[in-house]
Amino acid sequence: MSRYIMRRVLIMIPTLIGVSIILFSVMMIAPGGPEAVLMGEDIAPEAAARIRANLGLDQPAPVQYLRWFSAMLQGDLGNSFRTGEPVLSIIVDRLPNSLTLTLAAFAFALAVSIPFGVLASVKHNSFIDKLMSVVAFLGVSFPSFWLGIVFILIFADQLGWFPVSGMATYGMERDILNRLHHLVLPAVTLGSVQMATYMRFTRSGMLEVLRQDYIRTANAKGLHPRHVVLRHALRNGLISVITVIGLSLPALIGGAVLTETIFAWPGVGRLAVNAVFQRDYPIIMGVNMAVAVVTVTVNLLVDIVYTIIDPRIAYD
Amino acid sequence: MAAVLRTRQKQLASERPSSQLNDAWRKLKRNRLALAGGFVVLIIILSAALAPWIAPHSYRQQSLMSRLQEPSSDHWLGTDGYGRDVFSRVLWGARVSLQIGFGAAGLALFIGVILGSIAGYYGGYIDNAIMRFTDIMMCIPALFLALTVIALFGASMINTMIVIGVIYWTRTCRIVRGEFLSLRKREFTEAARALGMKDSRIIFRHLLPNALAPIIVQATLFIAQVILIESGLSFLGLGAQPPTPSWGNMLTEGYKFLSMAWWIATFPGLAIFFTVLAFNLLGDGLRDAFDPKQQASS
Known about the structure:
heterodimer, A: mainly alpha, MetI-like fold, 2 domains, globular, B: mainly alpha, 74% helix, 0% strand
């Protein structure tokens, strides 16, 4: 097992280098550059050339990439083209906010989807099963940002139950309750799509397991039905859900871009959107790399969780 | 005798694929939700195709006199902030959204099928190289990459379509590779190879038709996803550009008027919702219909 983990960690390195090369190439091939955004469209050619030289953009692309790469190895992701701040500290400031939002959305999705998915499978073809299927279908047919807008209109504007935007009321950043209060709407918005997906997979995974012989045996032994479902079936029924969780993670992080924009959440998603429009290359690279690191790490964790939940799966 | 044999061969050849399709069609016909989905998809495609003839007004004709009018007998779904007819724009928007949907899905499918079949058919280091590349692509959240590329290269309908297609092929690639890995060991593949057929012929004439079912399902579900992605990109200003109406940019424009004119954003929103729902229901029904394990009852 530890050898497997070591190998996976080592594979992460070329993967991340590949990600950085793809991103870098996109920026190099793209027409235009940051000088037009910094100084306006009708910038004099000499001034543009000076700015490009200052930012190191006059070098050949491979040289620029190697410079970026060797600096990155020393923990330096460069400075923002606009503000001059170190990219690393900007990301370190904001990544926890995005992770909080993503984790809360994920927790919401799991907390709702697994109990209801299990319920739907146990009461197969009943009213509750059909209702859950409808909810799951509706959940994946909405643009999630639209749901966020509707939430703001109803729960923030009309009812006033939740704040419209931001992470905390000004001056109350240390108040945990205040922060949780701000977290509810964005987390539910972001988690809703995943909730619907996980629910469908929980249901179908459980349905498959509940038909198997060992469940019939457990029932025949006279075990309490709840014990059979929760202790015997759930563990195997969840394997397919875990696969989906691993696969859906990039979508969850990507969805955060829109959710953060709607709720003015100070995370890396909004940072990336602004950076892209301002052609702030170091920030674009930094954010995407940070997100890629999170993604590969979580994928590895998912694979490790597999072995815990299903001992039949052995790596090595 | 030879003629009889040839006709018999032809019969067999025509029977085999059609019986699998017939089987799927029979199961699909019994799935009412999937049929409803298919019906709605058909209506949306028709109204998109006929938009120039059935739209009561121009989609771009602005009129200050008729700004922000409520739904009425003249403007069935009201007018927007520029006095344009919302119903006509929803119809024209269907054209744009479906074009992006089908175009991006077609491109993603094309790339995914080519790479997936090469990886699955040849195996070995070719497979390894393609799959590592797929892994890399899957590590970058697709929406991040899409918005980066579109913002840098300029937003337009065509760019949005191409970028979505070029980024989202990974799942198709994995599915096709998985199918090919098992198909290439089957006897008919061995037979084709023993007859000395070229690889390209084996891949496209013998293996691909056998892997078609999951590809069709994937494509149907993906069109729904593209429509959602386009609306998200439009919300960031990176979808089809005004005055070309896509449901995504109509929704975004209507968002500004939400408190005084609910109809502008609501109807394109509903159009997205029903279209995505319809494609999802159809795709789900197709998956069940093609699945030999699944009985039509469950």
